[in-house]
Amino acid sequence: MQIQDQPSEDYLIVRVGTERYALSSTRIREVVRWRLPTPVPGAPLVLPGIISQRGVVLPVVDLRYLLELGATEPDRATRLVIVHEKQIDVALLVDSALDLCHLTTDDLARLPKGLDPHRARLLRAVAQHEGEPLLVIDLEALVTALQEDA
């Protein structure tokens, strides 16, 4: 997706590991407290299981594994962000949901050249928010990567 495609948008800021990421708020259905998913035999580590949310069974995607940040034990701040992309609903496991912010295309910059290609394929841009870097996740690319790796 081109950075210039959207003049401005609201984002949910989440923490994964020690890094901050932004998820498009237009794709978010809800943010819920973490609960232990039901394991699926043979599923990769990035898919720790499934949950039922409002009568819908959702796969849980651990962003820590997907972004190669290493796992940590869930705590009281851990959240599941329910997103809808490409006709698919998934629950993204994040360490915490921090804030909402509004970013314009002027706030977004291209990704640094030295970024790991495995991670870069899941990101759309980088921005500065409150003096700290904020990596914008490309949810379409994330869902596509999950489908390709399945």
Rg value: 15 Å
User: Could you give a short account of the major beta sheet?
Assistant: 6 strands, mixed
| Order of the strands making up the biggest sheet | 8-1-2-11-10-9
Q: Share of helix among residues? A: 10-25%
What is the number of beta strands? 11
Strand percentage lies at over 45%
CATH arch. level architecture = Beta Barrel
pLDDT < 50 runs, ≥5 residues? none
Cα(first) to Cα(last) distance is 22 Å
Write down the CATH class: Mainly Beta
Instruction: Assign the CATH superfamily.
Output: CheA-289, Domain 4
Spatial shape: globular
Total helical elements: 3
**CATH topology tier name:** OB fold (Dihydrolipoamide Acetyltransferase, E2P)
Structural class: mainly beta
What count of structural domains? 1
How would you spell out the order of helices and strands?
A: EEEEEHEEEEHEEH
Q: What is the overall pLDDT average?
A: 91
What does this structure look like?
This protein has about 150 residues and is mainly β. It has one domain: OB fold (Dihydrolipoamide Acetyltransferase, E2P). About 15% of the residues lie in helices and about 45% in strands. It is built from three helices and eleven strands, in the order βββββαββββαββα. Strands 8-1-2-11-10-9 form a six-stranded mixed β-sheet. Strand 10 and strand 11 form a beta hairpin. The longest helix has 11 residues, at about 140-150. It is globular. The model has no long low-confidence stretch (mean pLDDT about 90).
